[in-house]
Amino acid sequence: MSKPFFIEKTESALPLLIERAMCEKESLSISGDSWFFSTTSAWRVVSKEGLCFGWESTDVEIEVGSLEGVSIVAVKAIGMGNLDIQFELGNGKYIECFTAQHYEPWELKLPDNTIMVADGDAV
């Protein structure tokens, strides 16, 4: 089975340094020089030990700041629908985003100005 286009395209841009990370209500935005990722869907940050924090966590706005200065070093599709995305971070943690809603659950702009938007209806 071949990789989804958004995975291959993102892999070609790695590593991506997270310079800014913010959370407002359930949404997460991470970005760096000429790239960004934003989601209004369910997301979490995990490690091999388990859940670090996520969209429903207490004080998530403070926790999100720990992503700044860390690079995305790998990416893969996870889940049944092939639109759930996992970013592997250089610190051994992972950002996972789930297509829990049908309308544009996440958006990714790469440094080459490619913009990709998940379509939960296109599963």
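That was protein one. Protein two is written in the same sequence-then-structure order:
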Amino acid sequence: MLYLPTPLLTKEGRQDGKGRGNLMRIRGLWRLKRAGRWVRNRFVHKGVILVYHSVVECPTDPPLLRVTPRHFAEHLEVLTRSYQPMRLNQLGEALHSGSIPPGAVVLTFDDGYADNLHHAKPLLERFDVPATVFVTAGCLGRMREFCWDELDRLLLQPGILPATLRLNINGSNYQWELSEAVQYSEEDVGRFRGWSVLEKNDPGPRQRLYRALWKLLRPLREGDQRQVLDDLLAWSGAESIVRPTHRALSPAELLHLAEGELIEVGAHTVTHPILSQLSATEQRVEIQRGKTHLEEILGRPVTSFAYPFGGRSEYTAETVAIVRDTGFSVACSTVEDVVWRGSNGFQLPRISVQDWDGEVFSRWLWGWLRG
């Protein structure tokens, strides 16, 4: 504790101006010292956790979840040349001991896409970089695409759709008009290839419809989401198929993914809900059953967890307590920040990677770790 001397007093027992000034200066120096320690710990003892989803070539990527294999290889080259890739549990231990090594970087993948095995793992092995893959247990082997991908397949791929869409979602009726976008060609796909939900403007009715439907579907429970998607399938006349580029891992592929010492499998609930919108009992079921199902397949403990979607509003303090009580040792959010000595090991921040080439990725990562 910093010793603060007694201020000078006048005969009347009050602080004189000089005493008050000395006291204020001492207190100011004390605050500066504390702030200096915080800044030093915050910006010197820090690392980052990167979040990827899918490593594959795709013509469209509205949610910005995909990185091409070529760019992923360039990212790994940057990491092995200039940084210190480490395992998530190693970072957790370093955080606990207060000694995060310089240039610490952890790779994570969310959801459990099959390309994590077929495209990402061979590159991780080539560069000897460890990673954690957070798997949505209920999607293993399922012959449906993830909700956001099925919207992309139905709305943003070439084809002809009816001019008017009417849906009832959670008891509310909605109607959209496609007008000039009823017909959608390969040229249209190429022209709007770079569009994503992060764009402020939508170039056409199909993109507006994707954004509107994703906003409505995102907070729904899985059964309600599937009902809406089934209605969309019936409206569009499309087949219920799973594209090879968008499918989830099968249980057998999960076992192959976990073979060796390089890749850890973590849990990501059963159905990928927004946990903050569920009751405590429902959250516990999602979190516990997701963990148990993966452990039954793998025959080993699953000790890491990632909150679905993972923003500040998408899980609560109660969620964190349930994750801790379920037996996980570390948990990740998607709140974008560095990991430093003051980070909470059950709310670790992560930063999302986009499909950048190696040069852009290098500058971007340097900004986070050295900025």
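Residues 75 and 358 are 5 Å apart (CA to CA). Keep this in mind for the problem set.
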